[in-house]
TrEMBL record:
Residues 16-185 form the Diphosphomevalonate decarboxylase-like N-terminal domain. GO terms for cellular component: cytosol. It is an enzyme of class 4 (lyase). This is Diphosphomevalonate decarboxylase. It comes from Bucco capensis. GO terms for molecular function: ATP binding; diphosphomevalonate decarboxylase activity.
Amino acid sequence: GEMAEERPVTIVTCTAPVNIAVIKYWGKRDNDLILPINSSLSVTLHQDQLKTTTTAATSRDFTEDRLWLNGKEADIGHPRLQACLREVRRLARKRRGGSSQEQAPLNLSYKIHIASENNFPTAAGLASSAAGYACLVSTLARLYGVEGELSEVARRGSGSACRSMLGGFVQWQQGERPDGKDSLAQQVAPETHWPELRVLILVVSGEKKQVSSTAGMQTSVDTSALLKHRAEVVVPKRLELMVQHIQEKNFEGFGQLTMQDSNQFHATCLDTFPPIFYLTDISRHIITLAHRFNAHHGCTKVAYTFDAGPNAVIFMLADTVAQFVEVVRHSFPPATNGDQFVRGLPVGSASLPQELLEALGTEPLPGAVRYILHTKPGPGPQLVDDGSQHLLGADGLPC
Ligand code: DP6
């Protein structure tokens, strides 16, 4: 309509991080509320390298709810997205309980426009649903003036998303209640706790993952006796140990347990019937390389972990990065010298001693690793103050 007829649009933008589990979540006891069969623990990654940005706008003039993902309009009717929207609005109503309608920052019945994008390619196969839902919930909460415990809401979008609501080292307590009120994320330590910790993501070549996490874990719960044993017996002990290793900044303990838990998660996938394969030959080459690298050094210098896909996430201390990147470059030489092989935080140069090269002993696999992203632990979701960063314009449409 005419400019003069337009009524104000309220706009909020937030960013949220990716997280990588070192004690894995795999399996639900309630599919609708997304309640897990075991607690899990993750490291929140820095948003300078990996983040989702979400803008939400609302106005009396909007005629329908609309959603744009990475610039393309998408279906806003997705049940998990609707669950998050409904829960944030419910908290907003609860909060405004006694207060009069005029005090409310805005009308909860106005239609909403949401735009969300990642600063990393979706095709890279890096888990984006955790950052996506954490960002959606953070943005909606700001828009509707809701504060406090929100991991419970993010959990309704994607289980792992509840852990992206906090920075640093984060535990998702499985909880006991059937209503999920105690199935929440808690910070174990802030991102400043272990300043030397670094993360390399090795993005490998190959097709997209075959089975989604949601579908895969359902089949695992239905068929894997190993998963049941893991959830009941193994994870409770490991969680306690992992928290201790983090508190003590014990890389030897942290690294070993991280690798063992990743391996057990993939073992439960193999124990699932029919079996699920997320690791590829390239993933297994990376595992072998890490163990040979550690054997050469006589201690745990690097620790890998893999989620529901073939990309490796490798933890190490800052003083190991340059040499390990050189090892990766040697073992998986870049296929093209066109685009950047090493991205993210700067990496120093290192030369590999002959003894190390012999210890690695593998034939190079050119092109198997597409690129390396260097990052570190980081903070939780952030409000974006700068209005020029909004993904929606004053008209409520993507800009
Ligand atoms: C292997 O959180 O993606 O990354 O709750 O069904 O959305 P849903 O699953 P999702 O599962 C993540 C599984 C994992 C391990 C982890 O992040 O803990």
